[in-house]
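#lab-general

N.A. 3:47 PM
ok so I finally got the sequence cleaned up, no stray characters, all 124 residues accounted for. can someone with queue access submit it? mine expired

B.Y. 3:52 PM
send it over

N.A. 3:53 PM
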Amino acid sequence: MCDCMLIPDGASHFSDEEMELRSSNFAPPAPPVDVSAFTPAKHFVLLHMPEGWFGDWHPTPYRQFFFWLSGETEVRVSDGEVRRFGIGSIVLVEDTTGKGHVTKAVGGGALTAAVQLPGAQHPI
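B.Y. 4:20 PM
back already:
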């Protein structure tokens, strides 16, 4: 399962999407494992948000996946829906224009891995 933040009509929304997994000999001679299709990636970064960190309305600067490694984050999209993401959550963030979303670190803060997809310019 992957949550997506989309912006098809100028407003950000959540969408629940399934990522198909297929059995593959990913690392022979280890037994097969279920894997998704490969997705090209451009950059990878770890992002730490301390408890109480708050990012008011903002679009994502890049189309990117976020993977929660620790802690918890609450996100509100522009249609008003709020979701919490914690360890094991995967979110594809695509609201690069418009009002964007609000992010708040809760539950002790959060450590995420962000993987920027092709087309992203290195921010730092």
